[in-house]
Write a structure and sequence with these properties.
Order of helices and strands: HEEHEEEEEHHEHEHEHHEHEHHHEEEHE
Number of helices: 13
Bound molecules: xanthosine-5'-monophosphate
Largest sheet: 7 strands, mixed
Strand order of the largest sheet: 1-2-7-6-5-3-4
Strand content: 15-25%
Distance between the termini: 32 Å
Radius of gyration: 26 Å
Helix content: 25-40%
Shape: globular
Number of strands: 16
Length: about 500
């Protein structure tokens, strides 16, 4: 939808009618999901949503939910449909406008709509689903059993486009230029005459966030760079130099290496590490902010995936995968209020925003680096000695990727120091040293990722350099797991 310049947000099913009315959307989509309406705890929304007069498209489970609400029939399929499925279109007036009679779609379902609800007509069918798409044109409610949102439905984008422009009558006005204008207005409104501290890590998110804020409130923005001792080789100097070279903003430097390392001593649990680091960050910002006058806000480059992954869809406690320190690790009581101008954007959109703000490529295309830094890439306890080993490995791996000209093709590349030692032989001597895991992934937004098929020669060179140049490492392995089921970082 956003690729068609239409803004959209994701909300959990228990959203209130009041909130929907406040948002006043041009249209809604009920997404698919793994549940079955035959289960007691299957997610449902309030039935009133369907009588708000807002155009609605239900996808897979979403379509079944619509059928259920309007007393249609939903039942189990005798033949499951999974994967590539031919769809025969019976009606090409709006949702399927401009399409051939038969198209390829992607299905993934066991339940299906077996009886049309009152007032609905059939728009399409497949061999195993008599009702693979339906509509009640009067109420502007539509449903599709297949998944138009995946690339495996080649014309899926066209279907979404038809829904947006032909049914919801969207105009497609959401561009990065309009986003900048709107954000600057909102930041000014939220902040008033107060000043803001911004945690600047030098990564694309916090940098774009800072530049946007700078545009909105100029000298009332104070950027604080925290050296937590968990940074990569030379990172501190690079960030300082880049910002001094390109921008004239208030840049403050806090050296907290000793404090972070002390608090992390002997901590091996990944969640504990994340929580400690998140808490320390905020404490330092608050301390730095107290040295300045009129500071009431803390700006963060939180992105939409962080917000989605940290929020519970079912209202109650849900599976927390990781406490991303931008969101989940924030202490409950905080002296500063938050400004998060990027919280509705995905990573690729932040880069587009950076370009629209005229930022240099070296910032925009830097690989993501997590807030908790190298601490979550050292499995087990974090020590200065282990950090130094990892910093060297990371620098070599990135250098080799860059000299192979592949830095921009990879979403993120990183090194991990494992908490095991392995036996090796160097010269004629037995060694018993550390293992470094290299990880490189391709991804669009970090939500899902595939391991990067880097050239063997590159891996070979990186491995050989790491083992030869770094004292204390005698083995290098390459991580070939995708996300899911693995995650990008190891902790
Ligand atoms: P995972 O490991 O969850 O990572 O697959 C997805 C992306 O998020 C980054 N990441 C973080 N970024 N604070 C951040 O700002 C964090 O606590 C954090 N944890 C993971 C990770 O590097 C990857 O790009």
């Amino acid at each position: 939808m956003r690729e068609y310049n239409v803004f959209c947000e994701i909300h959990p099913p228990q959203i209130s009618i009041k909130k929907i009315k406040e948002i006043n959307p041009q249209g809604m989509i009920f997404s698919g999901g793994p549940s079955s309406l035959t289960q007691k705890n299957a997610p449902r929304c309030k039935k009133e949503i369907l009588s708000l007069g807002i155009p609605l498209l239900g996808i897979c489970y979403g379509m079944q939910l619509i059928a259920h609400f309007f007393n249609g029939k939903v039942g189990k399929s005798s033949a499951r449909e999974y994967g590539k499925t031919y769809l025969c279109i019976d009606d090409r007036k709006d949702l399927f406008s401009g399409m051939k009679k038969n198209i390829i779609t992607w299905m993934s379902h066991e339940d299906k709509v077996t009886g049309l609800p009152n007032g609905f007509i059939r728009l399409a069918h497949t061999r195993n689903s008599k009702i693979a798409s339906f509509a009640d044109r009067k109420r502007k409610i539509y449903g599709v059993q297949f998944h138009p949102e995946v690339v495996h439905t080649p014309q899926g984008k066209e279907i979404i486009k038809n829904f947006l422009f032909k049914i919801c009558k969207c105009k497609g006005l959401w561009t990065m230029k309009s986003f900048i204008k709107e954000s600057v207005k909102q930041i000014r409104q939220q902040v008033g005459n107060a000043s803001v501290v911004c945690g600047l890590s030098g990564g694309v998110d916090s940098s774009v966030c800072a530049i946007l804020l700078h545009k909105a409130i100029d000298k009332r923005l104070h950027c604080i760079f925290v050296n937590n001792g968990l940074l990569r080789n030379n990172e501190e100097k690079q960030v300082k130099d880049t910002f001094k070279k390109h921008y004239s903003m208030q840049f403050h430097y806090a050296d907290a290496e000793a404090l972070f390392l002390r608090k992390l001593k002997n901590i091996t649990d990944p969640e504990k590490k994340r929580k400690i680091i998140g808490k320390l960050f905020i404490e330092i910002f608050e301390k730095e902010a107290k040295k300045l006058t009129n500071i009431t806000f803390l700006a963060q480059g939180t992105l939409y995936p962080d917000v989605i992954e940290s929020c519970s869809v079912f209202g109650g406690p849900s599976a927390v995968i990781k406490s991303h320190h931008n969101v989940g690790g924030l202490p409950e009581k905080m002296d500063l209020k938050l400004v998060e101008p990027l919280r509705f954007l995905f990573k690729d959109e932040v880069r587009l925003l950076g370009e629209a703000l005229g930022m240099p490529d070296e910032i925009i295309y830097r690989h993501p680096f997590p807030g908790p830094g190298l601490a979550i890439r050292i499995l087990g306890a974090v020590t200065k000695e282990r950090l130094d080993i990892l910093r060297q490995a990371d620098a070599i791996f990135i250098e080799e990727i860059k000299s192979a000209g592949l830095y921009r093709d990879v979403w993120q590349a990183l090194s991990v120091l494992l908490p095991v030692k392995s036996v090796g032989v160097m010269g004629d001597e037995r060694t018993y040293e550390n293992v470094v895991a290299l990880r490189a992934v391709t991804s669009v937004d970090g939500m899902t990722a595939d391991w990067a098929k880097l050239p063997m020669e590159l891996l070979e060179k990186a491995s050989s350099r790491i083992i030869n140049e770094i004292k204390g490492v005698n083995r290098v392995v390459y991580d070939i797991s995708s996300k899911p089921p693995a995650t990008i970082e190891w902790e």
